[in-house]
Amino acid sequence: MKDFIIPDRDMGTPAVKSDVTVNLIVDGIPVSVPAGTSVMRAAAVAGISVPKLCATDHVSAFGSCRLCVVQIDGMRGLPASCTTPVTEGMVVHTQTDEVAQIRKGVMELYISDHPLDCLTCAANGDCELQDMAGAVGLREVRYEPGANHFARRDAEGPNPEYRPKDQSNPYFTFDPAKCIVCSRCVRACEEVQGTFALTIEGRGFDSRVSAGMASDSFLSSDCVSCGACVQVCPTATLIENSVIQIGTPEHIVKTTCAYCGVGCSFDAHMRGEEVVRMVPSKDGKANHGHSCVKGRFAWGYATHRERQTQPMVRERITDPWRVVTWDEALDFAASRLRQAQADFGRDAIGVITSSRCTNEETYLVQKLARAVFHNNNTDTCARVCHSPTGYGLKTTFGTSAGTHDFDSVDETDLALVIGANPTDGHPVFASRLRKRLREGAGLIVLDPRQIDLLNSPHMGEGLHLPLRPGTNVAVLTAMAHVIVAEKLYDEAFIRERCDWDEFLAYAEFLLDPRHAPEEVEKLSKVPAELIRKAARAYAAAPRASIYYGLGVTEHSQGSTTVMAIANLAMLTGNIGEPGTGVNPLRGQNNVQGSCDMGSFPHEYPGYRHVSDPEARAIYERAWGVELSPEPGLRIPNMFDEALAGRFKGLYCQGEDIVQSDPDTRHVTSALAAMDIVIVQDLFLNETANYAHVFLPGSSFLEKNGTFTNAERRINMVRRAMTPKNGYEDWEVTQLLANRMGAAWSYTHPREIMAEIALTTPSFAGVSYDLLDREGSVQWPCNDKAPLGTPVMHIDGFVRGRGKFVHTEYVATEERTGARFPLLLTTGRILSQYNVGAQTRRTENVVWHPEDILEIHPSDAENRGIREGDWVRVASRSGDTSLRAHITERVAPGVVYTTFHHPTTQANVVTTDNSDWATNCPEFKVTAVQVSPSNGPSEWQEEYRHHSDLARRILPTAAE
Amino acid sequence: MSHDHSKLIRMATQMAQFFTSQPDRPAPEAVAAHINESWTPRMRQDFVAQIRAGAEADPVVREAAAFIRLPAA
Fold first, then answer.
1. Which residues of A touch B22 (CB under 8 A)?
2. pTM for this structure?
3. Nearest C-alpha in B relative to A919
4. Are A178 and A237 in contact (CB under 8 A)?
5. How confident is the model at residue A957 (pLDDT cuts 50, 70, 90)?
6. Minimal Cα–Cα distance from B23 to chain A, Å?
7. Does A514 contact chain B (CB < 8 Å)?
8. Residues A283 and A300 sit within 8 Å (Cβ to Cβ)
């Protein structure tokens, strides 16, 4: 059954927080609202919709359309209800003869400059202008035809005021002829997104919405295509192309975005089983009605022609694929897996769970390894991104997760952003942070690159510490040195929440001159004074928060850096209160969840070590099998063991390790050494080039389940359409497990969640009923916290006392020298996601069709490289070629690229160095040389040849 | 063929570099504890065998081998 869910009602102006309640009467109905609320919103609370055009609760009131006028006893004239705040005892009349007459007059003026092609208009059925004309009883327009903005021509010839549609953006159309200049779009771009790409040019009758300069289109402007303007537009002026093509939706399915770790809630607006548009949910607790270009627009991959919907097998990876039945594919997979175990031992096979799949799916895949393969060879892509977060935060605080919810950013006084690029990687969080920066919060950025967050319009001065890649620990320890040396620490907090003797030992460690900013400047190239300034600012802010990304974790000292971050927060008492905390920005949609669900080879769901007899007993009872108490193989260990001839079979669900993991040649030769590689995915991804079985996967629109975002928030994913491959992904895992003798009988993911809750203390209270009721909850969710835990460690750390771990800087083995004089660091871009499997199959490629190497002008000049030239990037591991972009965003000596495109294979260049504690690869530091080149490298040609061969599918035999 | 010789020792050396700077407990024990917690029995066996065979290694790594838990033979 499909539930029709009534879309969130627009309350006219944003909600206001206040401790003071104001009572008033609207149309005879008593209503109480927080002080500072508008009369319009108070009326909406009373159930009365005051007509409006320029007002919407997405942005602050503007008071330009005059349609929302009301009469208020004791007040002169007719005030606009959107800009008039409530007062105690106020008596409001939303409809009087005078009010009605004014509204009709206003509407008549609007309509006199608007085309009346309503029947064929894309907004027909969803147009606020049309609704308001109806609401105010407009029955005639008395104005004679005259100067207007909508007619192409008039009697005298072309209309000079007419502007054609701007269709430059692939996802939405701007039709100036329909514009009523309410400026909602301009305000949404500023207030909600924080980009300031739109403006109103001209005055009076000449006023027009404009993207950037007069010569700009939407595509060439600063617009980041977040769609906030489209969402607030009351007419067809800014509208999704999908609505133009399909028409209005008829039902809504509430679900969760499958892109980054922000985990935005979405309303999938459907017509039948077709998505008409994705609209971010206003009641979404992570995103509050906002989204980015990926979540809102880039879902076309789900129906892309390259999607594979049938199972396929082949004897050897050099053979073409053969389309087979599910039975044949599963039998083939199961018997080969069992054969590998028979020939090479129980530990010869393993699984990789997906951080893009649901918690329930991930849980089943790790259960497959533990309970059916009888080993603990399960790992997940978090290995290559945030495994140091798990280790570092568990060691210092006691939980492997971020401390705060995103809402906390509204109360922070200073944000320290380390190794993260939120405007590209976590755009909706970036918009929320930018909003806070505009309100005056401070910003410190530790990053080798000048990230866009530093260029936020209307913020104060941001500090940028452009450190040399690989020196995070040195710089953070130097900041701690300054805090201790200048006695800027929070003694009361440390005494109460941490161990004072441990602090004293750490302080002594820090005060050694080798940790002084002047010494660290020599390694990091960050001026000592800048380190001091940053340390003082962080310590001085009443509520300082830390947000960090993969620039922290993907290093040989990733775990040490996480602990250095935790130390800074503990030293300054920035834990446990809103506006403070240590928050990892998680990469993929469910990377937190996949870790929570026991994807790591040494931990059961809820981060309990496999050697813990109590935890093991719980699962032995629940699953009815004996379990191994020994840790299994991590992903890099699987590759090493495969090359050693001892690891022979892999079931890889929804990940593309060939593209995402470091040192591609190492990965591909490991896969080529296996007897059975099973890939379950939407597409024949790069890993499938090395697979023997392809099991078609289902998209997030085709399944039920849950994702857990970076703030530990468990969000519902709901099925909006039938899986094109016939099964939800968890069903495929169950089929495979049962082929291997498991006898699982789940009929719905809610039953899997019930098993998770039953066996995992931090999930004990979680159920689909609770999630349906509350929308989402943040774990821990149990008897102590029945509705979940937005902020952790409020009265004490989960581990008891916070632990100060000593953070000695150890230089990575990856060093520059004469042959490889530059440091390569990698990252991502707004329009593409991870390996690009999804986003490359959408119109997002108009923004980023290929990976580009950023290089500093001086490094480029030394090498005779010009803008746009093909260059070869070579490291000790391998080499690849791509085009160069010359920019001062990177420091001299540092080059930067993304890994979104398989034709570039940036990871051919990265090495197998890894974090000391977790084997998280050192993606962020590779010594390279860059030289001019005349096109793709030999490896790229070779790889392309192999891909072409490996993707052949035999034509199905004639019936 | 066993697990890549130099790699296990290289990984253990990285751990030794970290635990040497920690005041809590002797570094060799801490390194061994971390290895026991995160490496498979076979990786641990290979590691100990390599050390016993006289592979070149940091003294802390060498000492850690004594604390590695090996599966019952």
1. 805-806
2. 0.94
3. B11
4. yes
5. low
6. 8
7. no
8. no
Both tokens of residue A563?
């602990």
Q: Is A419 exposed, middle or buried (0-12, 13-18, 19+ CB in 10 A)?
A: buried
- By C-alpha distance, the chain B residue nearest A611 is B37
ipTM value for the complex: 0.93
Whether residues B4 and A644 touch (CB distance < 8 A) is answered with yes
Q: Which residue out of B4, B18, B46, B50 would a mutagenesis test of the A interface target, given it has the greatest number of A Cβ atoms within 10 Å?
A: B18
Task: Determine whether the interchain pair A916/B3 forms a contact, defined as Cβ–Cβ distance below 8 Å.
Answer: no
Q: pLDDT at position A726, please? A: 96
Q: Which pairing describes strands A676-681 and A693-696: parallel, antiparallel, or unpaired?
A: parallel
Average pLDDT of chain A?
Answer: 93
Hey, what amino acid is at A381?
C
Residue linked to tokens 């390894």: A369
Tokens of A672: 């080529």
Residue numbers in B near A916 (CB within 8 A): 11, 14-15, 17-18
Q: Can you tell me the distance from the alpha carbon of A286 to that of A429, in angstroms, rounded to the nearest whole number?
A: 8
**Residues present in chain B in total:** 73
What are A303-318's pLDDT values in tens digits? 999 999 999 999 999 9
Question: A632, exposed or middle or buried, with CB in 10 Å at 0-12, 13-18, 19+?
Answer: buried
* pLDDT at res. A795: 86
Count of alpha carbons within 13 angstroms of residue A50, beta-carbon side: 36
pLDDT tens digits, one per residue of A138-166: 999 999 888 899 999 888 899 999 999 99
Model confidence at A729: pLDDT above 80? yes
Cα–Cα dist B12/B17, whole Å: 9
A480 reaches B (C-beta below 8 A): no
Joined tokens for residue A510: 């820090």
Give the Å distances, CA to CA, from A440 to A43, A414, A436, A657: 32, 9, 7, 42
Strand partners, A232: none
Q: Which two tokens stand for residue A507?
A: 């302080």
Is the pLDDT confidence value at A494 over 50?
yes
What DSSP state is assigned to residue A588?
Answer: B
Tell me the shortest Cα–Cα distance from A505 to chain B, in angstroms.
8
Query: Is residue A936 predicted with pLDDT exceeding 90?
Result: no
Touching check for A634 and chain B: CB below 8 Å?
A: yes
Start-to-end CA distance of chain A, whole Å, equals 36
Q: Which residues of A touch B42 (CB under 8 A)?
A: 347, 641, 646
Residue A145 CB neighbour total at 10 angstroms: 10
* pLDDT for the residue numbered A1: 38
Contacts of B34 in chain A (CB under 8 A): 917
Write the residue in B3, B17, B42 that is nearest to A810 by C-beta: B17
